[in-house]
Each structure stands twice: as structure tokens, then as C-alpha cells.
Specification:
Blueprint: H1 2-49, H2 57-64, E1 67-70, E2 75-76, H3 84-89, E3 99-105, E4 111-119, E5 124-131, H4 132-183, H5 199-258, H6 262-290, E6 297-300, H7 301-318, E7 322-327, E8 332-335, H8 337-358, E9 367-375, E10 378-385, H9 415-425, E11 429-435, E12 439-447, H10 449-459
Parallel strand pairs: 7-9
Antiparallel strand pairs: 1-2, 1-5, 3-4, 4-5, 6-8, 9-10, 10-12, 11-12
Helix pairs in contact: 1-4, 5-6, 7-8, 8-9
């Protein structure tokens, strides 16, 4: 690129130098001719204006170093190098053309510039000579000076083109290196001039955005691949687990019917209910592996919350945590009750685990608040704990797949990621607010059935 840029620049400068030199040489050549003609005209004017007694032409020729060609055929030339007949052949036919400059040749074959001026007082043509080699020498010297200036300009242009091309092409080199690193997957090693304020800086910002998008897409692809493998594995596990789970449900129902102990009967009913929920989860996994459409029905938010509290009651008692419920949402939403309960149980279990770990340093950690209410057509569920809170440095990773702060034996990091997908699939939102040392509150928002219907009517 540098060589191409330099060749183009030198060619342009060489062409400009040639044109400029040609114009200057022609102008100086014209100037030399005009100067010789003007000198002969001044000499002729001086001779015509003399007030002294008329001198003989021979004396005038010696004094002014010029020659004369008389109309009567006589001539006086200061040198014998010119043939008078040849000079007369160059004269204009009419004396009205009183001045003339033209090329002439001496008897030795040397070319001269001859200037002719008619002097009416003498009835003769005054002739002035100058060798053409003298003018050519001046013009040649001038051309050499112009050529030297042109070469100097070309050298300066080469130096400037080197620095300019280096400044212009360095960003292109950086972009090429960045493209290579992106192709190798080394996104963090890419360095671009994004702080420049010119077009290069704007292009660098756009390039960096493209890199960030590629990085996010690669993460999503990896996540999709891992979920696909989990789905395949889960489908095979679901088929194997369904049979023993059906047996567990049958024996739990038999135990519930035959037992006379209230606590045993309640435990058997919970086992049967949980086994049925496990069966529904297995069915969801199978539908997911087959891309089946999830079944959606109207259900009560508070009923799902009460059912979730009943299921987690034993876990909360074991963790010495009290769940205080303030349920004021009588709303009906459209969706999958089993999936919604899965989200609530996941958040509640996370809150229980955080509270258990913080009980030694905080009395407030023995309590979890569960609230529900409706506002502006949105059913809202809040689950608040008073544990240690989520560290600021990892809050942005909470919903990322496979990210977990738990021990490998306790969690896979998929709970909140799946919860986020489920709530979004219901047209809702899930988010949290957390302060280190004070606790965390998770907020789940789902549009009510009436609100969803009104939105659908407006869109249609």
C-alpha cells in the first residue's frame, strides 16, 4: 500500500513538475525573444532621435554594434559571418512591419536570433544578432533548476507519503489483527482505537460492538448446546424414572387411605402430591425434548403460593426459618401452574439456604416474607429474606446459566436461569434487589388474565 501510494504521488508530482517546467521554459524563451527585440527597438529609436549631426552608418554600426541593410542594396555588417542576401530574404516585404525577430544562420552554420527594425531616417533595416546557444544555455540552466526542484519535491513527497501512509494504514493493520484474534476466539485480547474522534474511532466502536455481539452469541450457542445435551439426557432419565415414580404414587395413596394417624396421613398425601408434581416435571421434560406446546390454563396466584408453602413447610422447619405470608392477590393468570410453582419453590429454597447460612450472625435471618398483590393488571409476588445479601460483584451473573454460588453437590446453576425463561414465557418479569448485609427481595410479575385479554384485544 505504501509503495502504491508513493508511486501515485510521485507520478502526480512528476507530471505537475513537467507541466510547470514546460510552461516556465516557454515563458522564459518568449521573454528572451522579447528582450532581444526590445533591445533592437530601443537602439533604432535612439538612432532616429539623435540630435547630433548625422553620422555615417559605419560609425553608427561601430557605436551600437549593429548592422544595417539599406533599401538601395548596400549593407554594413559588424561581422562577416552572415550572408547579406540570406538576411534580406528574411525581411518582411512591407516596411509597415517595422519589427521582426526570427532565426537566422551564419556562414559557419551556427544558428542565431536576428532582430530587424526599420529606421525611416536611414531608409534601412537595423540588424541585431545574438547566438541561439546563449538563449539555449539560459533555458537549459533554468530547466535543470526546475528538474532539481522536481526531484527534491519527489523526495519530500516520498518521506511525507511514508509517514502519512503509516498514520493512515496503521488502523487498518490493527483491524486486521483484531479480525484474526476474533477468528481465533480471543475476544479479550482485541485492542481497537475506540477513543479516536474521527471516522476510524467510529468504525472501531462499531467493530467493538460487533465483537461483543459475537461474544454474546457464542455464549448463547454454548448455552443452547449444553441445554440440548441436558434435554437429551433428561428425556432418557424421565423414561426410566416414571415407572418407579408411579409405584411411589400408588403406595402413597394406599398409605393415605389406610392410615389412621393424621400426621402419617398428611405425610402420605404430601408424598403423593410431590410424586405427582415430579411426574408433571418429567412430562414437561419430555415435551421440551419433543418441542411440545406447554399446556396453559387459568389458575389462582394465591393458591399456587399456598401450595408452595405447604410443600416447603418441612424444609423451612428443618432450617428453623419462619415464612410470614401476606397474600392479597386474588387474581387469575393464564399459564402453567406447575411451572410457576417451580419458579416460586426455587426462589424460596434459595432464600432458605441463604437464611440458614446467616443465622449465626443475624437474628433477622430466621424469617422470610412472602407477599402477593395486584396492581394495574399485574400480579406481583415478592419473596424477601434478611440474610447476607448478594455480593455486588456477582449480581449481574445471577440469571446466567450454570452460574451458582452453591457447592457443586447442592446446585447446578440452572434454577434461576430456567425461572427467568418460564416467567418470560408467561409474559412477565423477574428481578431482584439486594444489599450486602441486609438481604434480598425477588419480585415476580405476571399479567393477569383480564390484562392479557385487554392487551390482545388492543393489538387485534
Amino acid at each position: 500500500m505504501f509503495l502504491l501510494f508513493s508511486v501515485c504521488l510521485m507520478t502526480l508530482l512528476g507530471l505537475l513538475s513537467f507541466i510547470f517546467g514546460r510552461v516556465v521554459v516557454r515563458e522564459n524563451e518568449t521573454y528572451l525573444y522579447d528582450s532581444l527585440l526590445r533591445r533592437s527597438q530601443v537602439t533604432a529609436a535612439q538612432i532616429s532621435a539623435e540630435r547630433v549631426p548625422q553620422r555615417v552608418p559605419t560609425q553608427l554600426s561601430q557605436d551600437y554594434e549593429i548592422g544595417f541593410l539599406f533599401e538601395d542594396g548596400h549593407q554594413i555588417l559588424p561581422t562577416a559571418e552572415f550572408e547579406p542576401s540570406l538576411l534580406r530574404s528574411l525581411l518582411p516585404k512591407e516596411t509597415s512591419s517595422s519589427s521582426l525577430i526570427t532565426l537566422c544562420q551564419s556562414t559557419k552554420g551556427e544558428k542565431h536570433l536576428c532582430a530587424f527594425n526599420y529606421i525611416d531616417r536611414l531608409k534601412a533595416w537595423a540588424v541585431d544578432f545574438t547566438p541561439k546557444s546563449t538563449a539555449s544555455h539560459v533555458l537549459r540552466k533554468l530547466a535543470q533548476e526546475i528538474l532539481g526542484m522536481g526531484i527534491a519535491l519527489i523526495l519530500i513527497a516520498m518521506i511525507l507519503s511514508y509517514f502519512v501512509s503509516r498514520a493512515l494504514f496503521k488502523p487498518l493493520k490493527d483491524f486486521a489483527q483484531a479480525s484474526q484474534k476474533v477468528a481465533e476466539g480471543k475476544y479479550d485480547e482485541v485492542q481497537l482505537p475506540i477513543f479516536r474522534k474521527d471516522e476510524v474511532g467510529r468504525y472501531a466502536v462499531a467493530f467493538q460492538k460487533m465483537i461483543d455481539n459475537l461474544k454474546q452469541r457464542e455464549i448463547r450457542l454454548a448455552h443452547s448446546a449444553r441445554l440440548a445435551s441436558i434435554g437429551q439426557m433428561g428425556a432418557s432419565i424421565a423414561h426410566e424414572v416414571k415407572n418407579p415414580l408411579t409405584s411411589m404414587m400408588g403406595y402413597a395413596k394406599i398409605l393415605s387411605q389406610k392410615s389412621t394417624d393424621p400426621e402419617m396421613k398428611e405425610a402420605a398425601q404430601i408424598i403423593a402430591s410431590e410424586a405427582d408434581r415430579c411426574n408433571q416435571i418429567l412430562l414437561q421434560m419430555l415435551r421440551f425434548s419433543r418441542n411440545d406446546i406447554q399446556e396453559r390454563k387459568p389458575f389462582s396466584v394465591d393458591e399456587v403460593l399456598q401450595s408452595s408453602m405447604a410443600l416447603i413447610k418441612a424444609e423451612a422447619k428443618s432450617a428453623k426459618v419462619e415464612i410470614k405470608a401476606d397474600l392479597k392477590c386474588n387474581s387469575i393468570v393464564i399459564g402453567n401452574a406447575q411451572q410457576t410453582q417451580q419458579v416460586i419453590l426455587n426462589v424460596l429454597l434459595n432464600a432458605l439456604q441463604s437464611s440458614r447460612q446467616s443465622q449465626a450472625v443475624k437474628r433477622e435471618a430466621h424469617e422470610i416474607e412472602l407477599r402477593s398483590y395486584e396492581k394495574s393488571g399485574i400480579a406481583t409476588i415478592e419473596i424477601e429474606d434478611h440474610a447476607a445479601g448478594i455480593p455486588q460483584g456477582i449480581q449481574h451473573k445471577i440469571f446466567e446459566p450454570f452460574f451458582t454460588t452453591k457447592d457443586k453437590k447442592e446446585g447446578t446453576g440452572l434454577g434461576l436461569s430456567v425461572a427467568l425463561d418460564i416467567i418470560r414465557d408467561h409474559g412477565g418479569h423477574i428481578f431482584f434487589e439486594s444489599q450486602e448485609g441486609k438481604g434480598t427481595v425477588f419480585v415476580i410479575q405476571i399479567p393477569t388474565a383480564d390484562s392479557a385479554k385487554a392487551s390482545l384485544d388492543q393489538s387485534s
